[in-house]
Amino acid sequence: METYLEDEYRNVLITGGAGFIGGALVRRLLLESNLRILNIDKLSYASDLTSIDNVLVSKLITKNRYEFVNADLADSNQLSNIFTKFRPDLIFHLAAETHVDRSIDSPYPFVKNNIIGTYNILEAARKYFINIENSKFRQRFRFIHISTDEVFGSLGESGMFTELSKYDPRSPYSASKASSDHFVNAWHHTYQLPTIITNCGNNFGPWQYPEKLIPLTINKALSGEEIPVYGNGKNIRDWLFVEDHVNAILLSAKKGIPGNQYCIGGYGEMSNLKLVKKICTILDNKLPRRTSYEELITFVEDRPGHDFRYSIDSSKAYKDLGWESNYDIDNSLILTINWYIENQDWSNKVSFKTSYNGTRLGLNS
C-alpha cells in the first residue's frame, strides 16, 4: 500500500517508534514517503532501534528526514520543546506499556506511561494546535491514538467487537488503555483537538519482543524448551499481521474523520492452543526433529482474569477507510516463523540486554 501522506502532511511525530508496531510504522514511512519523521521513545525494555537503523543505512536516508529523541512522555516540559521545534502536522501516538502479564505484576508503570503519558502528549498537542494560525495547516492536523481491542473486555462464544462496544477492561493493562482512549475522546469533544482512535487485535510479525506469545513459542521450540500454554489453551484471540495494521493506521490519517474510532482486526480468530500447534506443525515441516514440536507444549497456571475471547468487526474501517487485510494468518505466520529462524541472534541479543529469559510473568504473586 502506497502512503501518499505527503499530499497532506510534512512533519510526522511518532511516539513509541522504537517499539514493535511503532518501528514498523517508522520503517514504512521511511521507505514509502518523503515525510520528515520525529521518533520519540524512552527506550524501555521492549524498545529496539535495530530495524530502523538498518533502513537508515541501507537506504541512505538523509538526516533531515529522520530524527530520534530519547524522551519520556512523563516529561511535559520536554514535550513542549519538541512540539515548538519540530512543528508536527500529524501525530501517531503508540507509546505504551503493552504486556498484560507485566501489568498484573506491576500496574503502576501502566498508569504512568499509558495514562499520564497520554495526558501529557494530548496537552502538548492541544497547546500547540490552538496556536496554529495557518487555517490550511490547522485543517489537516491530526492526532492518531493507537489502542487495543482489550479495552472492550471479553466476548463469549459469539459476537464481535465494534466501535459501539461498551468499554469493559479486565486487566491493569486494558484499564490503562481504556482510560487513555477516554482522555483522547474528551480532548476532541472539549478542546476540538482533531483526534482519531484505532483499536486493534493481537499484532504479530518480525521484530516483536520475545515475551509475546508467537515469538515466545517459536523461540522456545527452536531451543527445545517447554512451550507454555495458559490454562486449557482455549482462550481465543483475533490475530493481525503488523503490516496490515500499519496500513490501517496510515489510512486512518489519510481518510479518517476526527472524533471517530476504527476497529482493526485481521479476521485471524484462533485459540491459543490451536495457534501454538500450528506453529509447531510449520516447524515440523521446516526443521524436523526426532519428535514433533508439539511434544514441548506444557499447560501452565492460567493468567488471573484471563479474557476468554476477542474478535473484531472491521467493517467500518473497510467502508470508511478502504482498509482490508492483505495477509492471511497462514502465510503471515510462515513469514514470521521464517524471520525468527533467520534472526535468532537478534532475539538472543534483546533478551540478554533486558535480562529476559522466558520466565513466566503475571502470576500475581
* Poorly predicted tracts of residues: none
Structural class: alpha/beta
Number of strands: 12
Task: Give the integer mean of the pLDDT values.
Answer: 94
Measured by DSSP, the beta-strand proportion falls in: 15-25%
- Characterize the main sheet: 7 strands, parallel
- Output the radius of gyration: 20 Å
Helical segment count: 13
Q: Characterize the overall form.
A: globular
Element-level helix/strand string:
EHEHEHEHHHEHEEHEEHEEHEHHH
Portion in helices: 40-55%
How far apart are the first and last residues' alpha carbons, in Å? 46 Å
Oligomer: single chain
Q: Could you give the topology of this structure?
A:
Blueprint: E1 11-15, H1 20-32, E2 36-41, H2 50-58, E3 66-70, H3 76-86, E4 90-93, H4 100-105, H5 108-129, H6 135-140, E5 142-148, H7 172-191, E6 195-200, E7 202-204, H8 213-223, E8 227-230, E9 236-241, H9 242-255, E10 261-264, E11 269-271, H10 272-286, E12 297-300, H11 315-321, H12 329-342, H13 344-353
Parallel strand pairs: 1-2, 1-4, 2-3, 4-5, 5-6, 6-10, 7-9, 8-12
Antiparallel strand pairs: 9-11
Helix pairs in contact: 1-2, 1-9, 3-5, 5-7, 8-10, 8-12
